[in-house]
Amino acid sequence: MDISRNWLTQYVAVDCDIPTLCDKLTMAGIEVEAVESAGTVPAGVVVGRILERKPHPDSDHMSVCKVDVGQGEPLQIVCGAPNCDAGNTVPVALIGTVFHTPEGDFKIKKSKLRGVESMGMMCSEKELGFSDNHEGLMILDSSLKLGTPVEKLYPGDTRIEVEVTPNRPDWLSMWGIARDVSCLFGVEAKLPEIKVPECNIPAPNLVTVEAPDLCPRYIGRVIRNVKVGPSPKWMRERLESVGLRSINNIVDVTNFVLMELGQPLHAFDLAKLEGGRVVARRAKSGEKIVTLDGKELTLEPRHLVIADAAKPMALAGVMGGEYSGVTDATTDVLIESALFLPSNIRATSRELGISSDSSYRFERGVDFDMCAVASDRAVQLILETAGGELASEKVDVNSGRPEEKVIPCRFDRIRALIGTEVSNERIVDILRRLHLKVDEVTETGCRVTAPLFRLDLSREADLAEEVARIHGLDKIPEIPVDGKLCHSIGEDTYWRLQGLRDKVIETGFYECMHYSMVNVNSALADRRFRREDLIELSNPLSLELAVLRPGLLGEMLGTIERNISRRNLNLRLFEIGKVFCGNPELFPEERFELCMVLTGQRSPERYSGERKLEYDFYDLKGALETLFELARVKRYRFVPAEDARFRPGHAAEVWIEGKKAGAFGELAADLTRGWRTTYPVFAAQLEVDVILAADHGTGYYVPFPLFPATERDVAFVADETLSNADILEFIRKCKLPDLESAQVFDVFVDDKLKAEHKKSMAYALIFRNRERTLTDAEVNARFEKLRTRLASELKVELR
């Protein structure tokens, strides 16, 4: 948002220098980002009068002039302008004057031009920064006193660029800024008097609102017999001071009111409206419109348009249509001043990729009451600058004025929130100067009614913020903070979460981060959930961000697909993040989840046959085992499972200390259909809370063993339903002394065993004592004890 200092002073007296004003604005929350001088005449330029003009002896386009600047003898100045005629009053830059240009500083010096001495420079409007006109000298009023500094006649302007936060749309206008400036400096802010001639000509069919939920208010009125042409100089200067280009008097008025009051307007050429009326309605499916910037858009019923009797003429709140605007041939105009639903304008602007100053304001919310004021102001200015006559009554179609928010205000609570002493009278004065209605004032508090232009005020803390920024944030005293150690870092939730994240990275995975808001299709890619299990946002930024993610798999699939489409096929990715569920029977409303994904070549950096090795189910299983080992999770097991997310027969559940922690496996074929890869994709989804809640024990340093280990193998035929996890758990419960590890190294099934629903399994057992070397007799005794228990308790056939 650009502010013109000169324009601002039309509403409030600003009796301070620019640095002070900028500092006050920034401290009040209106952050100043840049300051630029505009139209400032350099010191040393004075009013002069040309007394004599003679041709240059050595040039056919330059002249030698005698110029009186009111300072003794006339100056001889060589000039190439065509209008340096005797008698003209012009600005003269004296010797020593410094012009500041983008190319650098330029200083006027005594010089010779083609052999003729020149003692200064007569200036054009461009050289003084007033306009781009450099075809001749700037002609001044002949009644001006010679020698008068031109900077006093044209004081120049300063453009201040401010950053406006989304919650303060009332600052998106000169009047909105003036309100706060008046409060900061303790002076009155006042709008120019608005006078509109009475007109009672009925216009019953002029405005129709078919979508009142998207258009709460629409004001239309007709002005006939206008004369479209250039705007007056004062209006062009106002618009140029905030970076807007003058177009014509009608369009300039709508832009002027937009910047002055913050209310977007639109001027329709009445002759181009079929039926001579406008209709605020939803677009028809497939309906098209060409906007002012020449883009053809295809619309849907979710888009609001302003149409005539037959077709859309403007994309409501965003941009006018190419064939609805004012041209030099326009004689009758319809002035629109309306309110539109912010969320709909925001969604339309984002979806269609089109934005404007109007949509920027409508997205944040505009003042219901200002809608009528802006309409009157526009009519007043059009009648002044373009003539014509008001030809219809003000047609105001609305669904009723919204209720203003009433906020109880306790003075002690305000002082407690801002941390400094402010008198009751000062609090009331600040709130009233901010144009808030304050009544029922007592010794303890008051009642504050927030006007409709203050959409950000809803609670007592908001009032405290207003008092703090106007009274002065620099007046809040510095209070030393006493640090108290309450708990150890080990009890911090996010410290443990970060520790788990680090351990996943140690297993060779790379972290991803996705948005918590996703589209419905992405959310339902995790087949544990149905549509009714999702938590939908009441006011989403777009349809792509309409629900909170119930799991991490959906967005992770999108990341994998994008990588594969760019031929990045070897991936080890993970994410730890918060997910949300609307069905308490499935999961808590909020929880943390871990998602790990694996696909591609196991050793892409190798050569020959090793490059053909691909990740498989057991690579992901091994990564989980490594993770649990790093996290010191001891009691876990994998159980075969059937899960809609995974390929049948290629999935397993993870159980930790008797609690289901999640599942992993090869993704179902329809989840990866269409991906440009031949490698299977494996994924795991685990509940972080179950992992963190497990008994991790205490980690101790264990020295490298000094004594040798002894290995024994045990092989047996077992029922096909007996899993490796069951056998390892059984061996663990046997608590054999000095058993260091047990690991399966062979599983065999032939036709005979398959027919008997059996399988052959073999395990390697490692025995080691850390204090001495074991004897064969000791190891054999323990080994035979295990074989005996396997045969008797698990009913296996030893081999």
Core attributes:
single chain; 799 residues; alpha+beta; Phenylalanyl-tRNA Synthetase, Chain B, domain 1; OB fold (Dihydrolipoamide Acetyltransferase, E2P); Phenylalanyl-tRNA Synthetase, Chain B, domain 3; 6 domains; 7-stranded mixed beta sheet; 26% helix
**Structural domain tally:** 6
Shape: elongated
CA radius of gyration is: 40 Å
Mean pLDDT: 91
CATH H level, superfamily name of the largest domain = Bira Bifunctional Protein, Domain 2
Give the uncertain stretches in residue-range form: none
Helix content: 25-40%
CATH topology tier name of the largest domain: BirA Bifunctional Protein, domain 2
**What does the main sheet amount to?**
7 strands, mixed
Structural class by SSE content: alpha+beta
CATH architecture level-2 label of the largest domain: 2-Layer Sandwich
Gap from first CA to last CA: 85 Å
Residue fraction in strands: 25-35%
Query: Total helix count?
Result: 21
CATH class wording of the largest domain: Alpha Beta
> In order across it, which strands form the biggest sheet?
28-32-33-37-36-35-34
What is the total tally of β strands?
41
Layout of helices and strands, plus pairs?
Elements: E1 2-4, H1 5-8, H2 18-27, E2 31-38, E3 45-55, E4 63-68, E5 75-79, E6 89-93, E7 98-101, E8 104-107, E9 111-113, E10 116-118, E11 121-122, H3 125-128, H4 150-153, E12 157-163, H5 174-185, E13 207-209, E14 217-224, H6 233-241, H7 249-261, E15 265-269, E16 278-282, E17 288-290, E18 296-298, E19 304-307, E20 312-315, E21 319-320, E22 333-339, H8 342-352, H9 357-364, H10 370-386, E23 389-390, E24 395-398, E25 405-410, H11 411-418, H12 424-433, E26 437-439, E27 445-450, H13 460-471, H14 493-506, E28 510-511, E29 517-518, H15 520-524, E30 535-536, E31 547-548, H16 553-565, E32 571-580, E33 590-599, H17 617-630, E34 636-640, E35 646-656, E36 659-667, E37 681-687, H18 688-693, E38 710-719, H19 724-734, E39 739-748, H20 751-755, E40 758-767, H21 776-793, E41 797-798
Parallel strand pairs: 13-16, 28-32
Antiparallel strand pairs: 1-12, 2-12, 3-4, 3-6, 4-5, 6-11, 7-8, 9-10, 14-22, 14-23, 14-24, 15-22, 16-19, 17-18, 19-20, 20-21, 25-27, 26-27, 29-31, 30-31, 32-33, 33-37, 34-35, 35-36, 36-37, 38-40, 38-41, 39-40
